[in-house]
Amino acid sequence: LGESGKSAWAKWSKIQKGIIIGIAIAIIVAVVAMFRVSSTPTTVRLFNAPVTGDMQSQILTRLDQENVQATVNDAGYISVPDEKTAIKMRDILITEGLVPASVDPFANFFERGWSTTDADQNVKLKQAIKRALKLHIEALDDVASADVELSLPEDKLFKADQDPVKASVIVRPKPMSDLLTNRRKILGIQRLIMSAVEGLTAENCVITDSEGNILNDFEGMAESDRLDLVKKQEKLIREGEAHYRAQILKALQNTLSADRVRDLNIKISMDFSKETRDSEVYHPITIREDNPDTPYDDSEFRDTLPISSQTVTREWQGTGFNPQGPAGVEGQNPPVYSDMSNVIGKQTETGVTQNNALNKDVIHREESPRYGKVTVSVNVDGIWKKKYDKNHNPVFNEEGGIVRDYSPVPKEQLEDIADYVQGAIGYDRAKGYKVTVTNIPFDRSAEFAAEDEAILKARQTRLTIILVLIGLAAILAVFILYRFISREMERRRRLREEELLRKQQAARDQALWEAKEEGVEVTMSVEERKRAELQENAIAMAKEHPEDVAMLIRTWLMEE
To answer: What's this model's pTM, rounded to 2 decimal places?
Structure first.
């Protein structure tokens, strides 16, 4: 095979050899290109135009913020992993204005071919708007998903025949979201849809939830809004009442104790209607302010301050002229004027014009809400004091309760409390403010009964303890007396035993002495000798340790 190939190669001309080499190179290039194309992952171009320079860096940075893996080829085309990501990121870039002027953001939606019609383009436009609006709504934090349907009618020649643009949107909120009940958020979604769809009005935009409940029926919610407004107004009133109640009650309880001032009632009337006032106030011009260091008012005011003045004086002197009418005709002037004809007169006219400056305040005031009448009532209890006898012991009545004396609150103190409350609420007599401070004794029957019962129980407990202590003292005294008597009896018995032993020993000594004198030989047995020694030892020990000997003798007696 090698020899035949070499012989064939030698027979070919240079042109044939060039053709063979070209075909081989083309095959190798095709194989390499095929492997490269097959190994390259499938991507979608973000725009059908290259992007270079700073705009490319900004777009790639924004894609990195969205955790989108983007690639850029040598020509400047930006590609993303899939079509869904491309649509989403294209909408974000269009919204944020990160699209170069040379790039048509909707180029993908308007690729025209030789067979593309205007109807196809309109369908593509509608689908593009729906897709962009859907992604725009789902980009909100409270929306999990959304379905968008648009009705874009064809343009008519006459406006009266033109069908309106309509849109219906179904939103599904995320868990723990208040989207379905928050009117402000629903209104924001409605305005977003109306801004995205040209020619769409609020009447033709319907937003519902997955159950078909209309969320943007704001006209039908007018009554609900009114009730919500009333609730908010009542809440504002209650908060004001609670604030004043807590502040005033705390101050009074710190002064008079919480037991004497238990509650404070306050009622605030507020006008929530909006009132606008325009007024002009004129007041004197201050030339010199009051010096606070002086005990008197040394301020100086002027009603006006001259800016400019003009004085005009006119003097006239001469004969008066009374017209008589046409020549040859008698005049019709009254006789008084006729008599004054040709009379020399003098007239002086003086006029002074002065421009003065005034202090003028132009006030434009809008008030809402306005505080109306404020009513405060507080009850202060008097002082209850227990009655004691000379020994400082409580005095009890016939029913077994402690006698108590009630001291009402002085009238001057009630007036002081009323003045304090008036100052705390900003008392205004013109608005009808009213402050009432009363001295009605609290019903303390249950409190006194519990206190009397506790005192009686304490007295009984104290008496029981005293009796127990007396009993213990008596038992201790009896025990001590018993011990004393038993010790005395033991001592006397011991003395008797010692006396008996002494007498017995004396008798034996006497008998031995007498026998010795008589010369009688006395013989003693071993037992008698031991017994005698024991007796002598016992006598000696009894003298040294009487108590031990007594116990020993007691033991002997018990054994015998």
So the answer is: 0.45
